[in-house]
User: Fold these one by one.
Assistant:
Number 1:
Amino acid sequence: MTLDADLFKRGMRRLAAGVSLITTYEHGERHGMAATSVCSVSADPPTLLVCVNRTATSHAVIGRAGFFCVNLLAEKDDELARRFSTPADRESRFSGREWTTLVTEAPALVGSLASFDCEVIESVDVDSHTVFIGRVKAIELWHNDIVPLVYLDGRFDTLVGGRQIKDRA
């Protein structure tokens, strides 16, 4: 029996997940995408993974560059998450906020909850996605406030008070 992909997606929308920006850099150009598929793999040595759809424009760039930065978003970053979620806003994704680099050339978002600068140590193709496993080369905890932006049922939301920020377009 083959399960319906739409039913699977609707079921997965019920899993609240933190929102991150996965960024990289190639040939003088910054690239990035919003993602909820980030997971720690190991603390010793620090390693994490990101799952990237092979149709995403950042996919091939991460593979070629060999590095990426995971930037954990705060509740105030919902508009930024929207910009990184739609191809229409690709040109303005990095505008209006301060960006820097840590060890690799991947953009790190100043003021995010945390930035994990990673070097790709392995990649595994699984159906429509590639799992990029990254060895963490640098971590920046930008401030002590921890109010994450989460994604639940197709919307950006926050854990504080359970209030909805805005529907995702």
Note: Residues 57-65 form the longest helix (9 residues).
Number 2:
Amino acid sequence: MEGSNLWLLGNGSNEYAVTPEAEDNLSLTSAPVTSQSGFVLGYTTGGEVVRAFNLNDEADTSTEQFVALTGFSGDLIAAGDTGGDFTGSNAASGGGSAILARMSLIPEPEPNTETSVFRNEWRYQLSAGNSSVTRLANYRDDEVVALTRQGSEWVVLLFSPEGELLTAP
């Protein structure tokens, strides 16, 4: 059951996967990646790993550092900062910029299945350099609240469930 899982947020230079073994047991495997990235591991209260999410830039060239994780409308949202292009559509700022990512806990449909499943996953990168999200909060599953450092200033940003910025940065 997804609702009873515990979640661990971390950073490192490996990509993680949960693979099935004999007798319906799951095993955590890892493989090295080029740059530092984030990960989220889901496990049961008995210590069995059941899910793995990797939070890396598409090109695997920049350093991502994640520091905050919260549940949101049955999914997870992680945040921190990157030294490059985390979303695949932003120019690297050079001074690090704030990032957020929503990971859907709805299982992906089996291959060759005609059933469509809505998975609300997204990534967001603040265009301002020298910024980082340091804390996250869930406001009634309506908005994601992010405490963000921008240079020497602190700003509270609000995001929609779809990852749209609702306040001015």
Note: Strands lie at 6-20, 26-43, 49-55, 64-72, 75-82, 97-103, 122-125, 131-139, 143-150, 153-159.
